[in-house]
UniProtKB/TrEMBL annotation:
<dbReference type="InterPro" id="IPR006043">
    <property type="entry name" value="NCS2"/>
</dbReference>
<protein>
    <submittedName>
        <fullName>NCS2 family permease</fullName>
    </submittedName>
</protein>
<keyword id="KW-0813">Transport</keyword>
<dbReference type="InterPro" id="IPR026033">
    <property type="entry name" value="Azg-like_bact_archaea"/>
</dbReference>
<feature type="transmembrane region" description="Helical">
    <location>
        <begin position="198"/>
        <end position="215"/>
    </location>
</feature>
<dbReference type="InterPro" id="IPR045018">
    <property type="entry name" value="Azg-like"/>
</dbReference>
<feature type="transmembrane region" description="Helical">
    <location>
        <begin position="103"/>
        <end position="123"/>
    </location>
</feature>
<feature type="transmembrane region" description="Helical">
    <location>
        <begin position="419"/>
        <end position="436"/>
    </location>
</feature>
<feature type="transmembrane region" description="Helical">
    <location>
        <begin position="24"/>
        <end position="42"/>
    </location>
</feature>
<comment type="similarity">
    <text>Belongs to the nucleobase:cation symporter-2 (NCS2) (TC 2.A.40) family. Azg-like subfamily.</text>
</comment>
<feature type="transmembrane region" description="Helical">
    <location>
        <begin position="135"/>
        <end position="152"/>
    </location>
</feature>
<feature type="transmembrane region" description="Helical">
    <location>
        <begin position="54"/>
        <end position="72"/>
    </location>
</feature>
<feature type="transmembrane region" description="Helical">
    <location>
        <begin position="350"/>
        <end position="369"/>
    </location>
</feature>
<keyword id="KW-0812">Transmembrane</keyword>
<keyword id="KW-1133">Transmembrane helix</keyword>
<dbReference type="GO" id="GO:0005345">
    <property type="term" value="F:purine nucleobase transmembrane transporter activity"/>
</dbReference>
<keyword id="KW-1003">Cell membrane</keyword>
Length: 439
């Protein structure tokens, strides 16, 4: 009886799928993105946040996003804290701008509220259409380079140098060789198209690390979920801290990066699964509502913004077509709450290969930029290059928007610039002024 109800609700017959196939797809998706349970706490630990609390917040916000996506939007697309925006949170905002993580989390909350409202009032299309496609692509690629750069640093492959700023590290440390092992293994798995390559690579790297005593053995495998007390509600109590143009830019960046990352991922996955009809994605409002709700709850619990995950493509590839796929993934994230002791095994050398590989995947957006148009190429290039070189995602985005207006006006194409982009141009000029005056 229950299975019949499930079949009817998730339209198994109409989508030519089965309960078994959807369950397998959900498991495949979870395995492909389970690394976020361990990578996200480690990234946000750099911001001074309690990794155990972040682990719990990551699992719950991911589960919530997946369940809403599956039940309400009925898509086989899963949600979790986004790679890239968590690096922006930790390295650009907290470390780079010296903003307390509590204030940064309040910025995530405000961005989530705005995201939720523009979704409810259906003005998301206007915002998406306002930002040039070239800058959207450059933002994704630039974040990819930034993440990879962080991975190379965290893994000990790249170190600072007084003459050249950075250089390749001497391979004398066992921890660095552990990173190299993990990177090679993960690359091979990715090339072989093995589902869950990143997660499997982390597991194998951890095992090798424990064998050679480079990684500590976990005290246990299963335990009660860690407390949320260190991070729960902090975002709300620090809303009053968002009181400067610099912090307003931070909120705007959280919103832009998450918004466009989710929109682009949703469209790409919907194309893969064959959901796009007449150049439109049915129930896209519900899909964005799932993400914005997850982001809102996640900020209250204590994690960086959530986003639709491209790893959902692995579940779609094995036949996932209904929302039940996302429901299964969500349930597995809840079960993952009980495996927090494994956090001790996941060191920065274990997660570094994952960061580098995710960076490679995100950099693929470069191929879609119109490099033959100089007025497009310059702002795109500065956006991409600016993020790793300034160690700031927001600085890279600001460089791109400011340069885009200048090059388009110089090319006599000022009428093609959306009014919203002109507004952002002014905002980012003020941002640079505030940045330079502060220095």
């Amino acid at each position: 009886m229950k299975e019949n109800w499930l079949s009817r609700y998730f339209q198994f017959s109409e989508l030519n799928t089965t309960l078994g196939r959807e369950s397998l797809a959900g498991l495949t998706t979870f395995i492909s993105m389970a690394y976020i349970l361990f990578v996200n706490p480690l990234v946000l630990k750099n911001a001074g946040m309690d990794p155990n609390a972040v682990f719990t917040a990551t699992a719950i916000s991911s589960a919530l996003g997946c369940l809403i996506m599956g039940i309400a939007a009925k898509y086989p697309i899963s949600i979790a804290p986004g790679m890239g925006v968590n690096a922006f949170f930790a390295f650009s905002v907290v470390i780079g701008m010296k903003i307390p993580w509590q204030t940064a989390l309040a910025g995530v909350f405000i961005a989530a509220v705005i995201f939720f409202l523009i979704t409810v009032f259906k003005i998301r299309e206007m915002i998406i259409n306002a930002i040039p496609q070239s800058l959207k692509l450059a933002m994704a690629a630039g974040i990819g380079l930034f993440i990879a750069f962080i991975g190379l640093q965290e893994g000990g492959l790249i170190v600072k140098d007084p003459s050249t700023l950075v250089k390749f590290n001497q391979l004398t440390s066992g921890m660095t060789w552990l990173t190299i092992f993990g990177l090679i293994v993960t690359i091979i798995l990715m090339v072989r198209k093995i589902p869950g390559s990143i997660f499997i690579g982390m597991v194998l790297t951890s095992i090798v690390g424990m064998i050679f005593k480079l990684v500590p053995l976990p005290s246990s495998v299963v335990a009660t979920p860690p407390s949320l007390a260190p991070t729960f509600g902090v975002a709300i109590t620090h809303i009053g801290d968002i009181n400067s143009i610099q912090l307003a830019i931070v909120v705007l960046t959280f919103l832009l990066v998450t918004f466009f990352d989710t929109a682009g991922t949703l469209i790409g996955l919907a194309e893969q699964a064959g959901f796009i009809k007449d150049n439109k994605m049915p129930r896209v409002g519900r899909a964005l509502l799932a993400d914005s709700s997850s982001m809102l709850v996640g900020s209250v619990l204590g994690t960086s913004p959530t986003s639709a995950y491209i790893e959902s493509s692995t579940g779609i590839a094995v036949g996932g077509r209904s929302g039940f796929t996302a429901v299964v993934t969500g349930v597995l994230f809840l079960l993952g709450l009980f495996f927090s002791p494994l956090l001790a095994v996941v060191t920065s050398q274990v997660t570094a290969p994952a960061l580098i590989i995710v960076g490679v995947l995100m950099a693929s957006a470069l191929k879609q930029i119109e490099w033959d148009k100089f007025e497009i190429a310059v702002p795109a290039f500065l956006t991409v290059l600016g993020m790793p070189l300034t160690y700031s995602i927001s600085d890279g985005i600001a460089l791109g928007f400011v340069t885009y207006v200048i090059t388009m006006v110089a090319a006599g194409k000022w009428k093609k610039i959306h009014p919203i982009v002109y507004i952002l141009f002014v905002i980012f000029l003020i941002f640079f002024w505030a940045l330079f005056v502060k220095q």
